[in-house]
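Ticket #4471: structure export looks truncated?
Reporter: QA, pipeline team
Priority: medium

Steps to reproduce: submit the single chain below to the structure queue and open the exported record.
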Amino acid sequence: MSTEYLPGSCNIGPQEIRSRQMVALFGAVITVITALTLISTDQSKSARLSIFLPAAIFSIGFIQSRSKFCLAYGLAGTFNLGKLGQVSKVASLQDRKADRKTAVLILLKSLALAAVITAVFYALPL
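Actual output as written to the record:
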């Protein structure tokens, strides 16, 4: 596991990655609870679209942890490879641009994954 800042590639260390994994787990649990609630309370099919938000929470945490890259840090021009809360500024303009590009890509991937999860749940014949 890298413990070095790599522009557009790695801007968080092990503690921050663990934090993103916990967000993904929380999002997954909320997604399952939402799905079970919608199914068990016999809601309209359109109500199934409400699973998008918890699925997005899961997706954002999951993709950030797998990428070793925080999208918020990438957009802000910061990184943290140490203890939680020890944020450092990215010095180079070129590095900040690479980080922003990666952050936007992670956001788009996360929203796409949440959309797929939502579409599959919506399409289920329940």
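Status: closed, not a bug. The export was complete when the record was re-opened. Leaving a note from the reviewer for reference: The mean pLDDT is 95.
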